[in-house]
Amino acid sequence: MDFGFLQHLCDEIIRDYGTRDVFLIAEKVGVSIIYESWHPVTFGEFEKNTKTIRINRNALASAANAEDLERKIVAHELGHFFAIDLKLGRKEEEKFARAFAEIF
Ligand SMILES: [Zn+2]
Fold first, then answer.
1. How far apart are the CA of 8 and the centre of ligand 1, in A?
2. pLDDT tens-digit readout, 29-70
3. Could you tell me if 97 and 77 are in contact, meaning their C-beta atoms sit under 8 angstroms apart?
4. pLDDT in tens, 76-88
5. Looking at residue 20, which CATH number applies to its domain?
6. How far is the CA of 17 from the centre of ligand 1 (A)?
7. How many structural domains is the chain composed of?
8. Residues by chain with Cβ below 5 Å of ion ligand 1
């Protein structure tokens, strides 16, 4: 799939929510962010039914720049949130979330 529309979508999100801060965007779209610890060390997850981003504290603990990693995790998981209406397959959605996070 070509995500050529992605830059435009992100520009719209930034304009509509008045910020490019992914933490603020999450708050404005009603996505909660929670911090947990689990193994293996995957970075984060997005739960669609509860609109919740789960961040793995273990991943942050071993990161050289935890603040930057945390922002990147939120951006990626927010990509999964904005992918909901696109009804992509699992692999395509993962690609979308990665490309989304690159923009933020
Ligand atoms: Zn993902």
1. 21
2. 999 999 999 988 799 999 999 999 999 999 999 899 999 999
3. yes
4. 999 999 999 999 9
5. 1.10.10.2910
6. 23
7. 1
8. 94, 97
